[in-house]
Amino acid sequence: MPLNQQRLQQFLSIPYVAQGAIFFAPLRWAGNLGLEHVDQFGLPNTPLDRVEVRNYCRDFNQNVLFGYLCAMAWGAQGVGVTRRHAINAWDHRARIGQILNRLRTNQTLSRTEAYDLFAGENSIPGLGPSYWTKLIFFFSELDDRYIMDQWTAKSINYLWDAPIVPMSGDMPDATQCTGEIYERFCGCIDELAQIATRQRNEDSSWTGEQIEQRLFSVGGRRPGAFRRVIREWFSNKNVNKSEKKNDSLNPISFEDKLWVGGQTIARSKPFHWTLNDATRSLVVIRSFNDRSTNGGKPRFDEFSLVELCEILNLLRSQFGEMGIPLSNNVQAMPAQASTSGLGAAIYHLNNNSADTTRAQAASQLAAILVSADLARSANSRETRIILEAALDESAVWDALRTKQGELEI
User: What pTM does this model have?
Assistant: First the structure.
């Protein structure tokens, strides 16, 4: 399957920036997750770069689980609501150790065979392709095993303008991605390295690892040039009415997204949120201790940015500097007009079926807007928010993307 030549030249024109230490110190990461039985490893208390992690993982004097913890901290496993994945995976550390010992000692394994150590019936709960390919990269002696995470996979699909790597939402699909898919992905990176070397016209050549880092680019508040390209492409490629209609919201489809933690303004109740690229919407997850609310299970609610902006701008024009009331009292909402405040507006939106629990997410939405510098609290009780200016969907999306980027690698 041929490369898209225009996109290839776009990629090659962007300067290479080597990755440094990009996330957590292993000791801090393990402590934040509350992982058991890690004291024996003497984990480093400073963030590690790729070379340091790889040296630890390839060192036969080190326990493979020491290398595993360093690799997972480097990759920020367990951010947001995926915390339980990291804990669940660690509960299976005996199996992980067996696989990693085999990976480190058997250097005759092909890329397909290495991948299949983790895939299918060998899979480890809590670990998906983004993380087990990190382990393949760090523990393999050969340098042509590359990390297939959301950014490198999206980048390959972009450059070939084809689904080289099957995706599930933002992430490589664990059920569809096989050892053969991984081999094809790595082969694409090898091909890019050869092309980049030919076009470089210098004595030195590009390595596959350098190409992988160029595909990954740079995240965070100031994303790299190619990361911006991939963000925009992936955000836009599925946005059409038919796909919006068929895009079902369920907890499983959002588990691998980048979740941002937050607290409500007045009562400091914790929650998480993320963005759904396919529908240009904001997704809020709340947990309930009271089993009478959503059966005590986490609840996911999705809010269209178009509708939110329309509601908020209407309420802003009505309340001005007084601030928009949250208006999310369960007892009061049914009797309130839709213009009474944010919660009431959500309650009456599109025949909301009298869903007071959904409308109560006004508290979380207000906190998100304030944290993204799109609004500020209006009074000491923090029950109103002031919008300094009318909200534009694109500007809100960019602001939320930036806030989300604070946790993105």
Answer: 0.68
